[in-house]
Amino acid sequence: MAGDKFLIWGGEGWVAGHLKELLQKQGKEVYSTTVRMENRESVLAELEKIQPTHVLNCAGVTGRPNVDWCEDNKEATVRSNVIGALNLTDCCWLKGIHITVFATGCIYHYDDAHPIGGKTFTEEDPANFSGSYYSATKSKVEEIMKQYSNALILRLRMPVSDDLHPRSFVTKIAKYEKVVDIPNSNTLLTDMLPASILLAEHKDTGVYNFTNPGAISHNEVLDLFAKYVRPGFTYKNFTVEEQSKILKAGRSNCELDTTKLVKKLKEYNYEIPEVHKAYEECFKRMAAGGTK
Ligand SMILES: NC(=O)c1ccc[n+]([C@@H]2O[C@H](COP(=O)([O-])OP(=O)(O)OC[C@H]3O[C@@H](n4cnc5c(N)ncnc54)[C@H](OP(=O)(O)O)[C@@H]3O)[C@@H](O)[C@H]2O)c1
């Protein structure tokens, strides 16, 4: 919208890069920064310098090579994902700036009330997964951050790009020796990032499950990958119990309810495809782009 000025936090990150490219393609005024979120004076100075109307927060630690890292680096995790994330939202609030937070839906796991294929998790459901330090801190931060009237919190899960970037969920599971086979909500960036911009532009606030509708299992993803991108690709399965032996922290498996998101996006004439359909289109684009 006229006069909008976007500032992306965590500017060197994977999601941030996609977002910046998209905003530039849309002809929007966009800046990015790598200022540390926990450094209050620097954050305030950056907001003063750029004077954004919208901050898009893609910064945070997710751990390298994976979230197990957070188990051994709790202070660093808190500094970025708790103190930093809250500080940035607070500074934006003080300055009257809308902030969109790229958060996580990995705060739930299937339980008796929400079994596989059954009732899904809405934005109102309290988090029930704290099997990793990453997830445990993310859900607590969300509880506090959602009190801010300038904050839009988007819960991504297992983001996927149209290439085989190492951060993409498909790249990760295609490389694993063995995968579990559980249906999950996934966020296909090509479908979802334009939606995040629409919500930000309209200054929507509150929490949204931010995934394609539906759930898809690891096997279904890899079967489609073999069908469209890498014929002959094979994989092996193991159980969640076997998987837990090779991981330091637990992993969230769940399906999120996207009713609230779908309804809101309808107001802007934007539709997100169901996850199986979305993957088919994603893999067709991947193949057309020459990825093998
Ligand atoms: N990728 C996923 O699987 C996934 C899943 C669900 C949700 N998300 C959400 O999406 C966000 C972005 O993910 P991503 O995959 O793009 O991660 P990424 O590639 O690791 O990018 C995160 C960026 O944030 C920066 N950063 C970390 N701590 C910071 C701090 N305290 N202040 C300022 N910048 C900081 C990092 O910079 P340095 O490297 O210099 O520290 C990095 O450039 C995550 O924070 C997460 O909440 C991601």
UniProtKB/TrEMBL annotation:
GO CC terms in record: methionine adenosyltransferase complex
GO terms, biological process: S-adenosylmethionine biosynthetic process
Species in which this protein is naturally found: Drechslerella dactyloides (Nematode-trapping fungus)
Source organism phylogeny: Eukaryota, Fungi, Dikarya, Ascomycota, Pezizomycotina
Descriptive protein name: RmlD-like substrate binding domain-containing protein
Molecular function GO labels: methionine adenosyltransferase regulator activity
Stored InterPro entries: dTDP_dehydrorham_reduct (IPR005913), NAD(P)-bd_dom_sf (IPR036291), RmlD-like-bd (IPR029903)
Span of domain RmlD-like substrate binding: 5-176
One Pfam family in the UniProt entry: RmlD_sub_bind
